[in-house]
Amino acid sequence: MKVSVVGAGYVGLVTAAVLADQGHEITCVEIDEDKVDKLKRGQVPFVEKDLSKVVARGMRHRKLSFCTNLKVATEWADIIMICVGTPTRDDGYPDMAHYEAVVDQLCECLTGPKTVVNKSTVPMGTARRVEARLRSSCSQPDTIHVISNPEFLREGTAIHDMYHGDRIVIGTNQLDVQMQMMELYAKLSSPVHICSPESAEMIKYASNAFLATKISFINAISELCEVTGADVEEVAAGIGADQRIGTEFLKPGLGYGGSCFGKDVQALISTCKMYEVPFGIIESTVAINARQPYRLALKLEDALGKLDGREIAIWGLAFKPDTDDMRDARSLDFIKFLLDRGAHVRAYDPAAYSNAFRLLPDVQFFMNPYDCARGADALCLLTEWQEFAKLDLESVRRSMAHPIMLDCRNAYDANKMWQSGWDYSCVGKTPPKTLTSA
Ligand code: UGA
């Protein structure tokens, strides 16, 4: 099938590359000429496991190409997938400017028959509204269909998720379009869930909001564990063993970050306001998440007595491992707290250095974790990169001014850390001794 994918961001590029790998003819349309030039030379503009390999394979087999001309790409394709960003407006509602700009252009050049697929996360009712609009400017209106087909790709494992997703949601009531989409995804083994466009749009928001709520729930439980002497990991394993709850997304830490959860939860809250539907649980999810970095940073302040003038080393800045993405990273709030209290902050991240550098002008950056920790008064692990599990922690501890570690992702075995001379603190576990004042 011939597919034009509009937008070469995380979602667009991964979708385009995998569909090309499955034998479809894909043109990825991107407004940014510089990005298109780089992609044509095989350069992927962000860190995503295996993506460069799959993009290169698609280009080699002449199944994947890049261009800037939406009109040409639209005329050529059977299916147009819109994968542009819908960031958050000041009032919490999705900013539809990029999406609407694409629709405006489609209005000018769309002739039937075409299927327009919304992969961008858009408010409930968008597919139906845009279908009516596109049809009104087209000579063969009945051959234009707009459907919702949300993505569930996680950064860092997006290629894997695309091949092995838990489900493919196809939001259209039109039988022939359902068949067309099933043919498009025929080589993927994921079960297909067919529903109305509004339900598909809601599934995307509700999925992200539910996952964010699970994370905030376990983070609130972790605080309770610390004051009651329970161990949050034992608790998470115990409740997760109930298949109705499941073990996924019950990992306590610094809170959820990234470009999706915060944005989609805010969108749901503004939708609730718009329709006057009370939904307090989701507001609590946001409040717990906002508090978590400060709650953990206060532990460090307790350990050190004061933060003013202290040298604090940070391992990990990206919002999660295996990405260089700093959007809404919890590390930013955590570090701001330290800087506001007068601490000197130095940091190391395996991949996010260039993105973090712009956002954290008052932080000193190091190119390896050992140099970053040397001489520091305390070390904080903020992103659980695999690399940190393999380091020689004994030599790190000996190189520091004080052996204080705050592990905000429970990346290390707490019992081993407490036995090996670290003044170690983590999330939702009570240490056998409190962190001592340095
Ligand atoms: C998320 C969803 O997981 C995807 O299904 C969805 O498609 C995507 O948003 C999107 O809407 O595009 P992503 O933001 O890439 O994917 O990352 P996640 O793996 O979901 O992690 C989000 C945040 O939650 C990270 O900061 C992570 O550290 C945190 N997290 C995750 C926890 O603190 N605890 C957990 O148990 C899991």
Task: List strands and helices in order, with pairings.
Blueprint: E1 2-6, H1 10-21, E2 25-29, H2 33-40, H3 51-60, E3 64-67, H4 70-76, E4 79-82, H5 97-109, E5 114-118, H6 126-136, E6 144-148, H7 158-163, E7 168-171, H8 175-184, E8 192-195, H9 197-228, H10 232-240, H11 261-275, H12 280-304, E9 311-315, H13 330-340, E10 344-348, H14 353-359, E11 364-365, H15 369-373, E12 378-381, H16 393-399, E13 404-407, H17 414-419, E14 423-425
Helix pairs in contact: 1-3, 4-5, 9-11, 9-12, 12-13
How would you portray this structure in words?
- This protein has 438 residues and is an alpha/beta fold.
- The protein contains 17 helices and 14 strands.
- It has helices spanning 10-21, 33-40, 51-60, 70-76, 97-109, 126-136, 158-163, 175-184, 197-228, 232-240, 261-275, 280-304, 330-340, 353-359, 369-373, 393-399, 414-419; strands spanning 2-6, 25-29, 64-67, 79-82, 114-118, 144-148, 168-171, 192-195, 311-315, 344-348, 364-365, 378-381, 404-407, 423-425.
- The strands form 3 sheets. The chain has a 6-stranded parallel β-sheet, with helices on both faces.
- Helix 1 (10-21) packs across helix 3, helix 4 (70-76) crosses helix 5 and helix 9 packs parallel to helix 12.
- It is elongated and about 75 Å long.
- The termini are far apart.
- The structure holds uridine-5'-diphosphate-glucuronic acid.
- Uridine-5'-diphosphate-glucuronic acid (UGA) binds at residues 151-155, 208, 211, 215, 249-251, 253, 256-258, 260-261, 319-320.
